[in-house]
Amino acid sequence: MRTALISLTETVPGSTALRGALPLAHGRLAMLHIDLAVQAGAGEILCLVGTVDDRIREIEGYAAQRGLAFHLVRSVADISVRLASEDELLVIADGLYVAPADMDRLARETGTFVASFAPGDGARVLIERFERIDINHVWAGLACVRARDLVEARELPEDWSIQSALLRLAVQRGYRREVLPFSLAEAGRIAIVREAGEAEILALQELAGASGGLGGKVVQTGAMASLARRVWSTGWSRPALRLAGIGLPVIGIGMAGAGWGMAALAMLVTGRAAGHVANRLFGRFVGSLTRPVEQIARDVAFAIAFIIVTVLSVAASDRLSGLFAALLLPGLATVLSRVPGPLPQLWRRLAGSPSLVALAAMVALPLGLLMPMLMLWNLALTGLLLWQTHRAPLAADKA
Fold first, then answer.
1. Domains, the chain, ordered by start
2. The model's pTM
């Protein structure tokens, strides 16, 4: 069995704040270590601690949410008694940050190993953040040791770093070296965090990368970065956004029934935006990802609300046509997303975006052009499908 060892003992320079408990997005840095441990196949967490407080209990609660047993340890002896001789101990460095796209790469490693960088002579300041293994290599923050080898580390002095000792043990035992590209450290995709400000920068960098080209530039502006930090630090923001993602389309149905079509469409767009924001801002940790059933509920609430708003917003004689046009839109958009072809992925997403359809309807409704807009949108989707399914001539055909 594989067990993960994380650490909550190192503090931020000049402070009593624990590095592993630093805020990262809407959670704490050590929660990332728990996700990494789960992905690497660990069955339980051993956590090195000096003292126990609410921050550690919060991290323990997250481990329980991920289905892992969580044990507090203070020495190599504490660690050894919880392991069988054939077990593996996955050591995760205190303060380690790994970007989501690179976590799978580290988690795939099996057996005993030491992950390292071979940086050469460059980036001296960056290299000093990682523990040196030898003259040419620094530790990348992850190693896996055999439990039976821990016997040699039991006699360590109390002030000795247990994680450093286990790393030295792995090096002396000649464990396999997994040398990672140093570009991962230079790009901040694997890092050792020492201060709270660094964790915030990495979280915003992660958010920008997940938002695409234009979205990333927007996230990196001062105003949006400040707003993201404020939302992350507010306890009620996530439940409020999740509730809005489902509740606002439902409210929109009532407004459409009262004859307020424009306000109803605004509710649909706002609810859709709230759902997207919740997914983006609160999708860092696996344990807090939006559940599929919740996402389905959001999509169904939006679809039902849009159909009802459409039917109630057109003239009585055209309501059957409005129902037909509104039902045809998601069907064509779904087929378009599944059909392979030359259409760029961005175009497919825009053509099938419920939010864009609702925004276009907001423009068309006061002009009395809701039905023509829906019909034109369906025609546009049909045209895109014709483009997608166009069969390019082969050289053999020409011959």
1. 2-194 (3.90.550.10), 200-233 (no CATH), 236-389 (no CATH)
2. 0.78
